[in-house]
Amino acid sequence: MQLSERHQEYWRKNLRITAVLLAIWFVVTFVVIYFAPQLNEIVIMGFPFAFYMAAQGSLIIYVLIIWFYARRMDQLDNEYGVQEGEE
Prior knowledge:
Blueprint: H1 5-34, H2 36-39, E1 43-44, E2 47-48, H3 49-80
Antiparallel strand pairs: 1-2
Helix pairs in contact: 1-3
């Protein structure tokens, strides 16, 4: 099956969004832990920053990533006419 240019454009936008969000996920998950000793010098409400990110901050960012992806993909689906509709 040959995909139309419109389908390919939709897929490219989907992959771009996914790549950006995966990069954010990678930074929050691995880079923050890698630099934990340096980040512990920053204190937020009495807790070192690396501890805060491990305990709360990363979880909040994960939820925001999921929310943003769902919202943006819904917009793209509507824009390209591939939304899940009620039949």
